[in-house]
Amino acid sequence: MKLFSRRQVLIYSIGSAAAAFIFAVILGLIFVPPMIENAKAGNEPVVEDRIPVSERVDAENGTVTLVSNNGFSMAENENIEVYKKYNSAVVNITSITFGYNWFLEPVPQERGSGSGSIIDQEGHVLTNYHVVQDADRLSITLADGSEYEGEIKGIDPENDMAVIKFDPKGKVLTTIPFGTSATLSVGQKVLAIGNPFGLQRTMTQGIISALGRPIRTSDNLIIKETIQTDAPINPGNSGGPLLNSHGEMIGINTMIYSPSGGSVGIGFAIPVDTANRIIPDMIKYGKVNRGWIEIVPVQIFPALVRYARLPIDKGILVSQTVSGGNAERAGIRGGNRADAVRYGRSIIYLGGDVIVEIDGTPINSLSDLYGALEDNKPGENVTVKVLRGNSTKTVSVKLADRPSRYQW
After folding, report:
1. Could you confirm whether 160 is annotated as catalytic?
2. Is 353 noted as a catalytic residue in this protein?
3. What is the pLDDT of residues 267-324, one digit of tens each?
4. Known catalytic residue: 124?
5. Does 347 share its domain with 397?
6. CA separation (Å) from 101 to 87, 105, 110?
7. Catalytic residue among 117, 130, 156, 368, which?
8. Which domain holds residue 211?
9. Can you give the pTM of this predicted structure?
10. What is the three-class DSSP state of 385?
11. Which position among 115, 117, 181, 238 bears the catalytic label?
12. Looking at 113, 124, 156, 160, which residue is catalytic?
């Protein structure tokens, strides 16, 4: 019989325990948390932070859903966090007009309501133009119920956008962070927060159904490149933010397609990159500075085609050019004053060039003309293709300031 010393017994015991531990780790019976080095500070390794989750199995179809310790799914927690962080950045906007009673006294009347997003600590709110259009007074209601009088800082009817402002009087405001609409994908989850039917700060969820949709406004203008979504959007949501899963604004809800007036799963939002581009002008100038070709344009229509025997049935006839203006300097020709025709209240001078294309964009209507110049600033050059007789001519035009009111 071989005898062992205490030291030998201790060494043997420690070795056996270590071997058993390694064997257990290999079999997965013991979990060893991974270690992450803090590369910046050179600190001691720290244990990776893990969100405790469990699995919920649907007995009927066998699908597995990850559920956090609070009982909500990961997707639900995502929505809840976005709402908690940013719902108070969405305001209710009430548009008020004044009428007169039997005694000819001015009486305030609520014209309608919509939504808006607080974008800075100064109290600027981004919303739709049609929400504030023709308002005599604006009332802005915050999440805590406080009301402020608002004023219009700038408008852009061509994109149905407006910036209004209220004085927060030192109150710290929650603001909506701006994302980007350049990297959106069809099928991506989106969230809408607004005040449908006056139900303040309601959140709905959907996906991006399509991108690049052109829509026509009530002023018969075309808004290009809108985001189509099936997130339920109803009257009162107009002007509110369309958010991604991180709570970043990717669009501004503006319009729905609905035979009934309620949501049928077809809503449209203006891309946030468009808003980002025009907000500085709206705040600084009260409008968006855009370029213009100094002409009196006439949209071609069938009766004009027949009367003037035009070789084309779509485009913009140049009835007149402004004397010394950019169109005349570029070589674009207006109509002949000796060959005039009255149409309604307008006089059309025939024989001028017909604009058919600007910077590669086909021009079939006045809406196309506005749309082609929507993102161009005064002083920029555009390439204009015109039809002169039966031949085409291409000229370069340096854009002038677009007038706030047209003389035609």
Report:
1. yes
2. no
3. 999 999 999 999 999 999 999 999 999 999 999 999 999 999 999 999 999 999 999 9
4. no
5. yes
6. 39, 6, 15
7. 130
8. 189-285
9. 0.73
10. strand
11. 238
12. 160
